Amino acid sequence: MSRLVLDVLKPHIPDLIEFCKSLSEVDGVRKVSAVVMEVDAETDTVKITVEGREIDFEALKERVRGMGGAIHSVDEVVFE
Amino acid sequence: MFRSTISRILRYSGAGEFSRRYAVMNAFDGVVAILGIVLGSTLLGEASAGNIIAAGVGALVAMGVSGVSGTYMAERAEQERKLKEIEEAMLTKLNGSIIAEARKRAAIFSAIVDALAAILAGLIPLSPYLAALSGLLTLDLAFHMSVGVSLAFLFTLGVFLGKIARNNLIISGLKSLAIGVATILLITLLNLIL
User: Fold this and answer.
1) Which of B71, B127, B137, B172 ranks highest by number of CB atoms within 10 Å?
2) Percent of chain B beyond pLDDT 70?
3) Cα separation, B148 vs B39, whole angstroms
4) Which domains does chain A have, with CATH numbers?
5) CA B34 to chain centre
6) A45 CB near a chain B CB, below 8 Å?
7) Is the ipTM above a cut-off of 0.90?
8) Residues of chain A contacting B97 with CB distance shorter than 8 Å
């Protein structure tokens, strides 16, 4: 798996920079980019694009959860 | 490492601001309570340095215990409430996440800050009496120094608050100093009445 686009719901804190920095440390991840789609009272909906080689999806999911976020959907997947 | 952990706890839980508030509030409590003991036992009675230290240490221990337990329970409740609000918005439990962990630890951190602030601040007016006990100062000099350092500390706390509020530092310091002066006046007044 070399590319993933995730729809993620996260609390305001940790902020997007810290959130993505943490995801970039997951095995196989080389690049993380994110766009804020919606800001609510307590949460942000963000579209996160993760690129790399042999991305460990389970570890990624666990990291998102550990940072207080929840993956709502996987919107795009690329295998190479 | 330790520093970055603490800074993360404070950032994720928003407890930095609360801890600062607790620290200032309890430093006030600590100094004014011990100042009260010093003034009361000197003006209203004839206490020795040992008596004043015993009463002061007792009061500080009590303030430390009440600070730790009171703040922990209050802050824990606040942090849990906030966590539940976020969980409701997220429609998921946050158990095990760094946010839940940080909020749990924030209550402990605030409790320690609270107790330490009261105890350390309370030791300031008590310190001249420790010197008097070891024969370095006379009781009279210890009394005047104790009142002096207490007022100086209250002024410093006021300046610190002024810095937080970005107000005039001197005015803020003087306002805080007025609390100490008011305490002295009230106890002196009591001394005249009794």
Assistant:
1) B71
2) 99
3) 12
4) 3-78 (3.30.70.1340)
5) 11
6) no
7) no
8) 65-68
CA gap B135, B158 in Å, rounded: 33
Average pLDDT over residues B153-158: 95
CB contacts, 8 Å: A11 with chain B:
86, 89-90, 94, 99
The closest alpha carbon to B94, from B80, B77, B105, B113, belongs to B80
Instruction: Pick A67's closest partner by Cβ from B85, B91, B97.
Output: B97
The Cα A78–Cα A4 span in angstroms is 7
In chain B, domain spans: 2-193
Residue located via tokens 């690329």: A78
Task: Report yes or no: B19 and B74 within 8 Å, Cβ to Cβ.
Answer: no
Q: Give residue B1's pLDDT.
A: 62
pTM: 0.78
Q: How far is CA B139 from the centre of its chain?
A: 26
